[in-house]
Specification:
This protein is an alpha/beta fold and 246 residues long. The protein has two domains: 6-16 and 101-234, HAD superfamily/HAD-like (Rossmann fold, 3-Layer(aba) Sandwich), CATH 3.40.50; 18-95, DNA polymerase, domain 1, CATH 1.10.150. The chain has helices at residues 18-32, 39-57, 63-77, 84-95, 106-114, 127-137, 149-152, 159-169, 184-193, 225-228, 231-234; strands spanning 6-9, 118-123, 145-148, 177-181, 197-201, 216-218. Strands 3-2-1-4-5-6 form a six-stranded parallel β-sheet, with helices on both faces. Strand 2 (118-123), helix 6 (127-137) and strand 3 (145-148) form a beta-alpha-beta unit. The longest helix is centred in the N-terminal third of the chain and has 19 residues, at 39-57. It is globular. Mean pLDDT is 93; it is low at 241-246. It comes from Faecalibacterium prausnitzii.
Amino acid sequence: MAKYYCVLFDADNTLLDFDAAENKALTDTLREYGIEPDAETVQTYRTINEELWRQLEKGQIRRDKLMGERFTRFLKAVNAAGNGVEMNKFYLDQLSTHPDLTSPNVLDVLRELSEVATLAVVTNGFDRVQGRRVRESGILDFVEDVFVSEKMDSEKPNRKIFDAALRALGVENREHVLMVGDSLSSDVQGGVNAGLDTCWYNPNHAENPGKVVPTYEISSLEELYPLVMEPEELANVGLKNRRHQL
C-alpha cells in the first residue's frame, strides 16, 4: 500500500516558475517607472526583497510591511523617484499575469497523482496573485484547494498554515501526508514543523547546508510516482486508477 494519500505542493519554483515570472514582472515594472532593468539594479531589488521575505517567514515583520517597504527601499537605494506602494501594486498586477510552469510535464504529473491521492497547494504570497497564476496555469484542474498565506494569515514555515490546510481537506492522519517544495527554509522546515514527511524538490542539485533534512530529495517531479503510487498504479501510469480514501 502506498504511504501517501495526500500531497501538499509549494507553488513558486516547484509547480510555477517564479523566477521567470519575477523577471518579466520586474522588468515591466522598472521600465514603467523609467528605470533601466540592468543586472545591478535587478539585484538591488532582489536583495531587499529576499531580506524582507526572510523576516516575514521568521515572524519578524508583517505582510503589509513587506508590501509597503520593498519598493520604497528600492527606490531610495537606486536614487529614483516614485511611490513605493503604488510601484508594488503595479508589480503584483504584472506578476499575476505570468502563470509559467517549472516544466512542460507539471500538469501531466499532477494529473497522474490526482488519480491516486488528494493534492493541494500551500504557498506563501498574495491571494490575488497566486490564485490567478494557479488558475491560469491549469494546476487548479488537479488540486482540491489552494491555500495562500495572505488568505490564511500565516506564512510557511509556521505550522498554522499546514494545520488549517489539513483541516480544510479533512485529513487527520499526518503519517499519510507529504509536503513537496523547493525551499528548505520554508517548505521543508514548514513540513517538519507540522509533523509531516517532506520532499525537497531540487532540480538544480543544490547542496543542502544540513540545517534542515528532508525525508526525500528529488530532482524531477516524476520521482514522486513511486512515493505516492501503489505498485500496480505505478506500472500503469497514464491509466485512471482508483483514489485512495483518507
